[in-house]
Specification:
The chain is mainly alpha-helical. The chain is built from 4 helices and 2 strands. It has one domain: Glutaredoxin, CATH 3.40.30.10. It has a two-stranded antiparallel ribbon.
Length: 89
């Protein structure tokens, strides 16, 4: 990740998130290596703190518009979110 979001930006994303806040955290090998559990990322504040320390755990793709934010999986969700923003033909 070239420019990881700041804690302030993460907070703004969480506030727009349609998904449960815990969905922002990747449950991968780093998550396991750090010994994290679901209890460590159960709240908004915990998620922001964990992602602030371990940017690589931020779930991707993450799509953010002025009003909403989603984890872009499955990819059809991205299309649904962006369709109203597409120019009319």
């Amino acid at each position: 990740m070239k420019a990881p979001p700041s804690a302030e930006t993460l907070g703004a994303i969480v506030d727009k998130l349609e998904d449960p806040v815990t969905d922002l955290v990747r449950r991968d090998s780093l998550y396991k290596k750090l010994g994290l559990t679901d209890a460590d990322v159960a709240t908004r504040e915990q998620v922001i703190a964990v992602l602030g320390k371990h940017k690589a755990l931020l779930q991707r793709p993450l799509v953010v518009t002025k009003k909403k934010a989603i984890v872009g999986r499955p990819k059809e969700r991205v299309r649904e979110l962006l369709a109203p923003l597409a120019p009319k033909k």
